[in-house]
Amino acid sequence: MLSHNRYAIIASHYSESKNLKPNEGAIYIKKIYIIGIVASGKTTLAKKLSSQLHIPWHELDCIVHKRTPTGRVKQSPQEQQNQIQQIDTTGKWIFEGVYRESYHCLLDMADKIVFLDIPLRIRKFRIFTRFLKQNLKLEPCEYKPDFKMLRLMYKWTDDFEKGKPDFLTMLNRYQDKVIVLSTPKEIDEFIHLNH
């Protein structure tokens, strides 16, 4: 069973940054997969960890929907996997996004998997406030923030909740490297521990 292990350190600091010699307490985690549904805080956490740990982060949505001069184009599952494999050759990364079968490989590739299991009421409130901020041009957006997209985000959220037992069963196979964070406070504590 997955545990809510918010104190599991995923310190990726290099030995030279901490003046440590090999095997003097340094934990080498260079590949982190942050997973969660819409408005769970994935991007915010990825940005903070990227800055603190000096590891580049990648939005999986930008891999699914590739930017082109004429707009965003959805890539095939094989194209998505090819891009992920290419990024993996760099040796260190933070990926963040919702779960899709096309990047199931990240569960195997990651040193640590951080699942953001934020309460449904908080996520629904965040979806609406994000919608408002995007329409007021207070927050950047890669898609058209209209009512159709708002309805889709709520639908994806409801669909995730319905399929959550199966998702947790799948994630349980990786329980030795999964960290579950369930509240904004736990996320803040986790960031502080990895600073």
Strand portion: 15-25%
Please compute the radius of gyration using only Cα atoms. 17 Å
Strands side by side in the biggest sheet: 2-5-1-6-7
Q: How much helix, percentage-wise, in residues?
A: 40-55%
Number of helices: 7
Structural class: alpha/beta
Tell me about the biggest sheet? Answer: 5 strands, parallel
Find the count of extended strands (DSSP E, 2+ residues): 7
Task: Compute the average pLDDT.
Answer: 85
Straight-line N-to-C gap: 28 Å
H-E order: EHEHEEHEHEHHEH
What is the structure about, briefly put?
Helix content is 44%, strand content 15%. It has seven helices and seven strands, in the order E-H-E-H-E-E-H-E-H-E-H-H-E-H. Strands 2-5-1-6-7 form a five-stranded parallel beta sheet.
Can you describe this structure?
It contains seven helices and seven strands. It is α/β, with parallel strands linked by helices. The strands form two sheets. It has a five-stranded parallel sheet with strand order 2-5-1-6-7. The chain has a two-stranded antiparallel sheet with strand order 3-4. Strand 3 and strand 4 (71-74) form a beta hairpin. Helix 5 (120-135) runs antiparallel to helix 6 (147-172). The longest helix has 26 residues, at 147-172. The relative contact order is 0.20. The model is unreliable at 5-27 (pLDDT under 50).
